[in-house]
Amino acid sequence: MNNIILKIDYIVKKIRIATRNSPLALWQAKFVKQELIQVHNDIEVELIGMQTEGDRFLDSSLVNIGGKGLFVKELEEALLRNDADIAVHSMKDVVVDLPENLILHTILKREDSRDVLVSNRYKEITALPKNSIVGTSSLRRQSQLKRICPNIVLKDLRGNVETRLRKLDDGEFDAIVLAAAGMIRLDLSERIAQFVSESILLPAIGQGAIGIECRADDSATQKLIIPLNHEETSLCVLAERAFSRRLQGGCQLPIAACASIKDREIILKGLVARLDGSEIIQSDRRGDVSDFENIGISLADLLLERGADVILKKYTK
Q1: Shortest CA distance to 265 belongs to which of 295, 243, 286?
Q2: Residues marked as catalytic
């Protein structure tokens, strides 16, 4: 029965986790493994490391090769072939429309969702002098950075966290901007010069959260992973993804959104920007947490009414 053992009315099985081979992705997969073993002491967990198309073309812009979905495609194909039971992702890499027969079933508690400035010379973004070379591959970051620092020079930066730090240390950049969560998880917090406020850089959809994808018909696996779900994080990320879906967004577009919950009220902030920072359309929506999806959609509709559609058309041609 292929590693499946019937135990009363509960199915215990070996869980195979598909993951990218980057240090951060492996950290996340190992964390999920530890959490599963802690919840189920009679379970075996195997990691299946894979190289994705996004990992193979590190010299090309993500926009030019198809976006962050390239970091999850091979993992999803492994699920569909039944070569793995779950795939562990950084939620900001997961496109809003999943392949048929796959579901985003579980989202773990979010780490710090902010961006961080990493620099050997400067302590905060506003201290960057004219013509400073700043590395980031994110259109979302580029557009917001240009708004506050119009005279900096933005240069595309890809690769895993260690590669990006090495390029900074080799003098290719004066500063780089990364996700706080990755730096914290890799024990690199001492390299952080500034945790950047959301009022300066609104985070990417899903940033800081880890998601678990599985087959829609695999109820046995779903029972095993559901204890790892963090309800508040899940509601926030799903609201952000509803906003992105309505805008037909992805990493190819300069959009951002971040949700939070206080006393059963969800507050969602979102924006759409021109890449040069000359125009940023932003607002927020709030309401009961049970209405998280409509809140995401209504915020997107509001920005579209205010002219976001004009901006987006330029980037979706």
Answers
A1: 286
A2: 93
